[in-house]
């Protein structure tokens, strides 16, 4: 199996820059909402939440990508989701990263065992990529959040 066969099942279809010029605070209702049995609603807003402040820790180093495919579905990354990727975060063992392999963008879970780097899909239908010195490989950033519509 070639690298292209392994990398392409989860494509990045769009990339966006972060803009923090506009601030839009949205009401944050507390206490938390029960996901089990309904609880009586409390009619108060505890504070206001700015999603830029909550989701983007390093604006100059953050970008968004839209994904296509299902190789990371067991990690909660679905076709059409938007990933918030932070280049300031350190890529580390078991982190989900956006990487370029031989000119192809991919999203995988990084595993480093001894001196060998593996990119692991989160779907048993896809194979692990072993990163070798012959490959043109670069980490573009660490996935900090997934924006998923249901």
Order of strands, main sheet, comes to 1-4-5-10-6-7-8-9
CATH classification class: Mainly Beta
| CATH topology label | Umud Fragment, subunit A
The stretches of 5 or more residues where confidence is low (pLDDT under 50) are: 1-8
Mean pLDDT over the residues:
81
Number of DSSP E strands? 10
Q: How far apart are the termini? A: 34 Å
Helicity range: under 10%
CATH architecture: Ribbon
Describe the protein.
- The chain is mainly beta and about 150 residues long.
- The chain has a single domain, classed as Ribbon (Umud Fragment, subunit A).
- Helix content is about 5%, strand content about 45%.
- An eight-stranded antiparallel sheet has the order 1-4-5-10-6-7-8-9. A two-stranded antiparallel sheet has the order 2-3.
- A hairpin with a 2-residue loop joins β6 and β7.
- The longest helix has 5 residues.
- The radius of gyration is 18 Å and the shape is globular.
- It starts with a helix and ends with a strand.
- About 20% of the residues are buried.
Q: Which key phrases capture this entry?
A:
single chain, 150 residues, mainly beta, Umud Fragment, subunit A, eight-stranded antiparallel sheet, two-stranded antiparallel sheet, 2 helices, 7% helix, 45% strand, globular, disordered N terminus
């Amino acid at each position: 199996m070639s690298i292209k066969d392994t990398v392409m099942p989860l494509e990045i279809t769009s990339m966006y820059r972060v803009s923090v010029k506009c601030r839009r605070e949205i009401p944050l209702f507390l206490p938390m909402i029960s996901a089990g049995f309904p609880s009586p609603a409390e009619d108060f807003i505890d504070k206001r939440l700015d999603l830029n402040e909550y989701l983007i820790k390093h604006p100059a180093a953050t970008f968004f990508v839209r994904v296509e495919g299902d190789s990371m579905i067991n990690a909660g990354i679905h076709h059409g989701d938007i990933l918030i990727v932070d280049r300031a975060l350190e890529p580390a063992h078991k982190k989900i990263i956006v990487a370029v392999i031989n000119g192809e963008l991919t999203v995988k879970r990084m595993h480093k065992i001894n001196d060998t780097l593996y990119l692991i899909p989160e779907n048993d239908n896809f194979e692990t990529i072993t990163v070798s010195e012959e490959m043109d490989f670069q980490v573009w950033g660490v996935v900090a959040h997934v924006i998923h519509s249901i």
